[in-house]
């Protein structure tokens, strides 16, 4: 049975700008928003948009991501025909193995796409926070008679040089593509979400793979080649919430925006467009009588004995009596010991912050950034970790840490 459109989700990026958080974890598997991981957003968008076949292209540190995806049941993607499929790189007769670029990753999976004989293929990124109806995007693509469409957002002109930009005519037909230009002609930033007619995409993937000088990348090669050949290309203007959480500061900001859905535009409590995730299986949370919790998200299994303000606590976090947590993101299984102060920071999974330790600081100027503690780190009693600090777990079992 042919599928009208299937999704190919690029989830193999290293996420090097997240430093300690992606030391042993693929970026799409990074926890977000209390009970989610980043990849929950494109997967939920797919099922909410009526897309029931998703190929997930993994590469860097895939163990946790593969385990989390499983058979796709939390997103209703455990289908007999279709569903979710994890697609790591593999050795082929041609000798190719690792994905060399975004286009090469799709090229190596042409046989997977052909199994479903789709008319359209949507290319998604596994490292963005976005709630988007892809069926609206496909409707736009069809109405325009497009061979390629890209989702775009207007960004402030002063920020435009940071993005790949689509220059369009008055009908949103793409006339030029600028990759991070010094002198932008447009402020329509590519979101890295594309819809292709499959026959067109397949042709250009094969040609790109045969070019020894190609970087095998959609932005640097496929899109310029489509423009060169005057293919029918359109920009789809998206006006909802979208954030590339590629840096520590942007990840922290997006988590904080979850706590203010009326102003930020990201509403995780929307019953009409749910974001699905794998259940932690933990019991309900418990807040002690002498604890104080203000404007925070407290998820399954948390035990709160101290003060928590404007923060997000993931499953199984413990905040002991006398501890203070403010403007912080505390990921699953971490423990904030008695008297510790944790402010304006991201604490990864299974971290222990010792008694009366201080991590991060409230900002008093632009130089004070977000402190970050990597997974599994033990911060000793009375230790002090300042703003902008980055603590990794690079010691062997049994050695002293901080």
From TrEMBL:
Its EC number is 2.7.7.27. Keywords: ATP-binding, Carbohydrate metabolism, Glycogen biosynthesis, Glycogen metabolism, Nucleotide-binding, Nucleotidyltransferase, Transferase. CDD domains: ADP_Glucose_PP, LbH_G1P_AT_C. Residues 289-377 form the Glucose-1-phosphate adenylyltransferase/Bifunctional protein GlmU-like C-terminal hexapeptide domain. GO terms for biological process: glycogen biosynthetic process. One of its GO terms (molecular function) is ATP binding. Pfam families: Hexapep_GlmU (PF24894), NTP_transferase (PF00483). Pathway: Glycan biosynthesis; glycogen biosynthesis. It comes from the Bacteria. It catalyses: alpha-D-glucose 1-phosphate + ATP + H(+) = ADP-alpha-D-glucose + diphosphate. Gene3D superfamilies: Hexapeptide repeat proteins, Spore Coat Polysaccharide Biosynthesis Protein SpsA, Chain A. The record marks 59, 98 as: Could play a key role in the communication between the regulatory and the substrate sites. Transmembrane segments: none annotated. Residues 7-259 form the Nucleotidyl transferase domain. Alpha-D-glucose 1-phosphate binds at residues 99, 164, 179-180, 190. Homotetramer. Belongs to the bacterial/plant glucose-1-phosphate adenylyltransferase family. Involved in the biosynthesis of ADP-glucose, a building block required for the elongation reactions to produce glycogen. Catalyzes the reaction between ATP and alpha-D-glucose 1-phosphate (G1P) to produce pyrophosphate and ADP-Glc. This is Glucose-1-phosphate adenylyltransferase.
